[in-house]
């Protein structure tokens, strides 16, 4: 707490939360074009569209993929940094941590074995909300980067009033939310021994 690393991650978290994703995408596209001469837009170069997979096509996908990964991951990572710090500081003040520290438990083991596991619970619980956004991507970022993901397709369906396509996308995203919630419940049960898989009161 209050170390250089703490201040650096806090600054990174604030910058990530304050910067809109589409603006960050435009800045990275400009930087890649000016500094490296890369014209990054779409998921691959136009000459590879409709062709069978090859190493050249795979390399083109990797070349175009790093900006969407950074842009979409930055805001979520920044929010996680802030939440993890707050949860971890709250756990470090609890009695079981003070008792373990007084008994001479090594600091790294004390941090990773007990408070870190408890502080990760909110992140695991949010998997249900993160899974649809990971699959669809940010719609505005996908439009800016010309990515052929479900986000721009959903926007186009809404603009053209294609209710069947829009309804199908919404049902698919709802299914992803249910799957994400199920996965988060299983991970929470494995991470936190206080959570039971069986229902009913303990006897």
How would you describe what is shown here?
The protein has 203 residues and is mainly α. The chain folds into two domains: 1-119, no CATH class; 131-203, no CATH class. It has eleven helices and no strands. Helix 2 packs across helix 3 (55-92), helix 8 crosses helix 11 and helix 10 packs antiparallel against helix 11. The radius of gyration is 22 Å and the shape is globular. The model has no long low-confidence stretch (mean pLDDT 78).
Salient structural properties:
about 200 residues; mainly alpha
Instruction: Please state the CA-atom Rg, rounded to the nearest Å.
Output: 22 Å
Number of helices: 11
Structurally, how many domains make up the residues?
Answer: 2
Strand content: under 5%
Order of helices and strands: HHHHHHHHHHH
Give unreliable regions as ranges: none
Biggest sheet descriptor:
none
How would you state the average pLDDT, rounded?
78
- Through-space gap between termini: 42 Å
Gross morphology is globular
Give a count of the beta strands, DSSP E runs of length 2 or more.
0
């Amino acid at each position: 707490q209050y170390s250089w690393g703490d201040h650096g991650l806090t600054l990174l978290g604030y910058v990530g939360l304050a910067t809109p994703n589409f603006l960050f995408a435009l800045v990275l596209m400009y930087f890649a074009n000016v500094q490296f001469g890369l014209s990054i837009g779409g998921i691959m170069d136009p000459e590879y569209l409709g062709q069978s997979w090859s190493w050249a096509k795979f390399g083109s996908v990797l070349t175009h993929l790093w900006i969407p990964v950074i842009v979409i991951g930055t805001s979520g990572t920044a929010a996680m940094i802030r939440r993890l710090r707050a949860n971890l500081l709250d756990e470090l003040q609890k009695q079981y941590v003070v008792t373990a520290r007084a008994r001479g438990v090594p600091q790294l083991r004390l941090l990773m074995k007990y408070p870190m596991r408890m502080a990760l619970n909110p992140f695991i619980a949010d998997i249900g909300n993160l899974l649809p956004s990971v699959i669809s991507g940010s719609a505005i970022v996908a439009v800016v980067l010309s990515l052929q993901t479900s986000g721009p397709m959903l926007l186009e369906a809404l603009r053209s009033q294609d209710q069947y396509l829009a309804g199908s996308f919404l049902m698919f995203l709802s299914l992803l939310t249910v799957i994400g919630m199920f996965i988060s419940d299983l991970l929470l049960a494995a991470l936190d021994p206080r959570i039971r898989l069986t229902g009913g009161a303990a006897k």
